[in-house]
Each structure stands twice: as C-alpha cells, then as structure tokens.
Amino acid sequence: MKSTVITSIIVAICLLIIPFFGFKSGQTATPTAAGAPTVSYYAESVKEQTPRQSGSFRIKTEEKIVEIGADDYIFGVVAAEMSASAPAEALKAQCVAAYSFALYRQSVRANEEYDLTDSYKTDQSYLSEEKLRERWGEKYGEYASAVRAAVNAVSGEYLSYGGAPALALYHSLSSGRTNSCEEVFGGAKPYLIPVESECDRLSPDYKSVFSFSSDELKEKMSSVCKSDAKDNLFSDVKKSSSGLVLSLNCGGVTLSGSKTAALLTLPSAAFDVEYESGAYTFTCLGRGHGVGMSQYGAQYLAAGGSTYKEILAHYYPGCEIRKV
Q1: Residue 261 and residue 238: Cα distance in Å, rounded?
Q2: Does 171 have pLDDT greater than 60?
Q3: Separation between Cα atoms, residue 176 and residue 244, nearest integer Å
Q4: Any idea what DSSP says for residue 40?
Q5: Whose CA is closest to 258, among 171, 194, 169, 183?
Q6: Most CB contacts within 10 A, which of 145, 195, 201, 308?
Q7: How far is it, in rounded angstroms, from Cα 28 to Cα 34?
Q8: What is the pTM of this model?
Q9: For the chain, which residues make up each domain, given as ranges?
Q10: Mind listing the pLDDT tens digit for each residue in 82-97?
Q11: Per DSSP, what are the bridge partners of residue 282?
C-alpha cells in the first residue's frame, strides 16, 4: 500500500478510535531518553547476503552467553517489548521488526562471540520464560499463546533493504511524526526517515511535564555545563520537523537534545523548555528515540484493520519482506 494511503488510514483511525484505548508497549516504562542504544550501529556495513541459516542467536546475558532458537528468541523479545494484549497484526509487525534487528546485529557481529545482548541499552530487550511467568502470573497461558501465535505466523520473515537485513529500529511512542535516524544517531538509513504517526497524539502517555529547580538542573547538567549563570541556562534551541531537539545552548555549551534528555532522564528528546522564577519546566512529547516503528501507532493501525505488512511498509518505507 502506498505511503499516502497508509497516512490517510492513520488519520481516519485517529478520528474513530477512542483516545484512551489503553495500548501499552514494553518500552513505555523505559525512563531514559528513548532508551536510546548506547552503541553506534550506523558506521557498520551490512552487505547483501542471505541471513545465517543456523536458526539461532547467541545471546549475552549478565551471567553467560546462551544459544537460543530464533523463534524462541523472538518470542522473548516481543513479550518484553510489546504488550501481549496488543492486536495480532501489531504483534506480527513487532516480530518481523525484532527479527530483522536481530539479523542485522548478527551480521555485524559475525566475528564476535555473541550476536546480541538481552538489554535494550545495546540491542533489544529479551525475557526468559521464567521471567515472563513472573511478569504475567495467572495470565501467562493467555499471553504466551497470543505472542507465540504471532511468532509462528511470521516465522522467518524479516525486512530487507538492498538485499541485506534492515536495521528495524522501533520505539514506544512518537511525537506524532517519527524521527530521522541520521538526526538522532548521526547515521543515515534510507528507510529510517520521518513518517506520520498521528495516532500517537491520542496516547495518555503522549505528553509529560517535568520541573526542576535551578539548583537541581545545574546538578544534573554539571558533567557538561558548569555555568554559574543565575538566569536561564538554555538558548538557541534548534528542532527538526518532527519536534526533535537537534541542538541547544546550555551555559555556552552546545548539546544535542538526546544528550540533554538523557542527563535529565526525560522520556524523549522532543521537548520544550521554559524558565520562570528560578525553575525549569520541560514538556516532552512521545516516549523513546522516535526512530522507525511506533509501537503505539502500530497497535492503532492494527486495531483499524491494517495488516502487519501494511504497518511495516508505512514505518520502514522502501523495505521488502523476505523469508529465511
């Protein structure tokens, strides 16, 4: 489906669906600026290739490295990253995105002793069956069945760009328009460009407000800004078309919005800052780094009848779905 048609569907769904639908995603609880990975993916080259046929991934946990079958790994990722009560097509989209991401990381780590970690800080979250039983409790059977059905339905399917696995980044909730990979992480990906995600504005988590006294803010920013200024530290704020703060001046030091959000533990780098009477107020839009698929938007699209293929085509334009 063409991008313009998908965009029209998004707007139509937003007008029809009750704003407080209650969709959740695993990354909603991530406290830092998007849970943005602390490593750079973007200088890495993934050549055209068929993904490794082993059907498993080597996962590095805090204790050891374990080898996990591909479908079991994707089950643990999707269960950790998205609500198991999400619409089936949204769960399928998350499965394909997670598998694509895993294949990408496996490709660039081909000469290392592991393929991925189990942490969103460097890769994507993964929870074992034991931890999922603790999380889901009496709902384990119901939720596990829903996620497993999604995994089985799209087993082996991944997003490809130029013949190679795509870096299918995803996030909890956008500002209403997703961000460019280049603007957030400094490396361009032709399929990680801004697209509309208007339904995100309907989320009860869409807008959040944080206040800091002057002393609190200076303490949090002290590692990068040691100004003794008595007035507003921030000036010259530059934003992208998606509302992402690209840069700002803090006491004479130029910082990125992502760095500022991380230091202040804000949920996103799409923010406005106001200063009045010695206090700072940050109003944030969305949750997460805002690149790639919005999990909240995917759930709204699925609830409105979009298939997982249509959802993926919208959030990763130019990619095609292949199967191992």
Answers
A1: 14
A2: yes
A3: 11
A4: -
A5: 183
A6: 308
A7: 9
A8: 0.87
A9: 3-200+291-323, 207-285
A10: 999 999 999 999 999 9
A11: 210, 273
